[in-house]
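Continuing the series of single-chain predictions for the mutant panel. This is the parent chain; the variants come on the following pages.
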Amino acid sequence: MDHGHLLSNQTRNLTNNFDSPALSNIDNALLSFAEGDMLTRDRQYAKAQMMYADGVAQTKIAVGVEKNQSANNLQVLAVDSGEWSRDDWDTTSYAASGPSFLGLG
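Parent structure:
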């Protein structure tokens, strides 16, 4: 699975406090990669390698969630069967018949 292609089309710089990544559910992966970078800087290479591996696993999970969500988009289409007419929704005829449910009429 080529994750680079999926992420390359949605690359954004996260420079402000309220910026969010283009791929939802990627936060855990970003944290793992950042922690791996910090551990590498402290020369804790074995721990850093574990965090990088966790980041890759978290990325795979986020990509899977994104694909599943995009595959399950529901679309509601209105179909006019000719059963109702505009007169069926005329509110003036109901207002003259008695009090409204709000007690305003």
